[in-house]
Design brief:
With 360 residues, the protein is an alpha/beta fold. The chain folds into 2 domains: 4-84, no CATH class; 92-357, no CATH class. The chain is 39% helix and 14% strand. The chain has 10 helices and 12 strands. It has a 5-stranded mixed β-barrel. Strands 8, 9, 10, 11 and 12 form a 5-stranded mixed sheet that branches. The chain has a two-stranded antiparallel sheet with strand order 1-2. The radius of gyration is 21 Å and the shape is globular.
Amino acid sequence: MKYFECTSCHHQIYFMDYQCDHCHSHIGYVASEKYMGTFKIESDATWVAQNTSFKSTLFKPCRNYSLYQNCNWLIPADDDNVYCESCQLTHTILDLSQAENITYWSRLEMAKRRFLYLTQRLHIMPRPKKSDTDPYGLRFDFLMPNDDQPVLTGHANGIITLNASEADVVYREKTRENMGENYRTLLGHFRHESGHFYFNVMQYLHPELIEEFRLYFGDERLDYSEALQRHYNEGPPLNWQESYISTYATAHPWEDWAETWAHYLHMMETLETAYYAGISIQGNGTTLNQLNFEECPIGAKDFEATLQNWVTLTFNLNALNRSMGLADAYPFKLTDTVKDKLRFIHRHLLTFVFENNHPS
């Protein structure tokens, strides 16, 4: 993620913040400008941008900020929409008469906004789903399960459903332990499930890539239900680490794609943050390579250098975490086979570009 600064005091501001910690100016993200702004509030519906580089001057807060203080994105004051580009994608939310649901909904939306930031940087930000048959739109349903209605997190036909219990840290950690996973986050859910959506987009826009996809991920025509049942009954195959990023990736080519897609997004945002922070690592000259950015990793021409930087960065992130007595920040291993899958994604990422390629 880029580093942003407050226009008023020039201190660093963070993507999820509503106010500058230093001067207390009001701040927010303007998707149309692809940047964080500093604002002077003239009225509830009129915020004046202090960023002189912005094309517009007058903005309004998203309705979910006005009603719930649950969104820090703004839209131009003359926009007909009352919801921002992120909140327009949310179709179903929780029962907000229950106080804890407001907290869970807030956490879900924060993770979604961070996910969408990266899709915008990659030029693949989805638009709201217009109809059940719309193959290019996306919507999110946040649902809380009960005794009569369980909720499974998943994707189907451009609709991503998230079990809102995942926003409960204790629930999520217990689920991670029960599933034998070494990583489980809200952001990871958004990135994984979006992989299924973007696979569908690839099929619609460029079906000629499917044969190449099968070389790396396998034949997606394999019966999904049977494959998933076999995975839960038998577990991953022996030596799965040689070819897959996670045990769940072994279940079916669709899941292998979604898991690898999520890791590509993890890689891009984390490396972009390191790039804008100016982080470099000397390396030891033998087994650990240096980290040196010749270009921003987003859209990098030299993906081999990006992969090398990722291995070096995550090794050191894990070492720093262990120094604090924490679990590894990135508890995964990239084998040559997994790297080939990541290369496929990077090579064909422009296939998914939405700003110019997909129907409105």
